[in-house]
Design a protein that fits this description.
The complex is a heterodimer of chains A (115) and B (115). Chain A has no helices and eleven strands. With 115 residues, chain A is mainly beta. Chain A starts with a strand and ends with a strand. With 115 residues, chain B is an all-beta fold. In chain B, 0% of the residues lie in helices and 52% in strands. Chain B contains no helices and twelve strands. In chain B, the strands form three sheets. In chain B, strands 2, 5, 6, 10, 11 and 12 form a six-stranded mixed beta sheet that branches. The A-B interface holds A 31, 33, 35, 40-45, 48, 50, 56, 58, 88, 90, 92, 94-99, 101-104, 106, 108-109 and B 4, 6, 9, 33, 35, 42-45, 47, 50, 52, 91, 95, 97-103, 105-108.
Chain lengths: 115, 115
């Protein structure tokens, strides 16, 4: 079955450490997204990529970095510059530029906590 | 910039009854898509229903239906015959019809089903 796989499910970061969250999709989607979810808030867009080797900042990109070297993969790095990284992170993908209203598909998320 | 507002942080309904969740949005565009996503305790994001702005007919998916009022920029979700499995966070989301497919989310409504 096609879908989006996020790993790990739980992740702990020490002070001053960079950590990378994995997101892989086998839906043959061009577009991929990273969202952050905090309690009492909706999902906020961190970064998105519409095509391989291209990505754009979302609403809260500071302290994060991404790469898109392969269509299937869109890893998110939470850098030490992100002072409040504790949150639930969701990866999503969509067909991209379809104009058909196809919805985004989501992974099961990664919970990141500070040690 | 587009904004999505969900003014009900929490709602509750008796099992088998009907409940309506509210959502309003702000946009200057005439073509767009609106979505309701459900997030149960497992934290997985599940698409409930989708509405195309150019369609006057309200979308329906089994027990779920929407009341889409384009002029008022309102997009409410009605859940009929509520079931225990409907208990979740519900998020309203907006997407432009063309260009990139990134979503703008509301802050969510937590729905509790009372047995």
């Amino acid at each position: 079955d096609g879908g989006i796989t996020q790993s790990p499910k739980y992740l702990f970061r020490k002070e001053g450490q960079n950590v990378t969250l994995s997101c892989e999709q086998n839906l043959n989607h061009d577009a991929m997204y990273w969202y952050r979810q905090d309690p009492g808030q909706g999902l906020r867009l961190i970064y998105y990529s519409q095509i391989v080797n291209d990505f754009q900042k979302g609403d809260i990109a500071e302290g994060y970095s991404v790469s898109r070297e392969k269509k299937e993969s869109f890893p998110l790095t939470v850098t030490s510059a992100q002072k409040n990284p504790t949150a639930f992170y969701l990866c999503a993908s969509s067909i991209g530029f379809s104009g058909t209203g196809e919805p985004q598909h989501f992974g099961d998320g990664t919970r990141l906590s500070i040690l | 910039a587009q904004t999505v507002t969900q003014s009900q942080p929490e709602m509750s309904v008796q099992e088998a009854e009907t409940v309506t969740l509210s959502c309003t949005y702000d946009t200057s565009e005439s073509d767009y898509y609106l979505f309701w996503y459900k997030q149960p305790p497992s934290r997985q994001m599940i698409l409930v229903i989708r509405q195309e702005a150019y369609k006057q007919q309200n979308a329906t998916e089994n027990r779920f239906s929407v009341n889409f009022q384009k002029a008022a920029k309102s997009f409410s979700l009605k859940i009929s015959d509520s079931q225990l499995g409907d208990a979740a966070m519900y998020f309203c989301a907006y997407r432009r019809a063309f260009g990139n497919e990134k979503l703008t989310f509301g802050t969510g409504t937590r729905l509790t089903i009372i047995p």
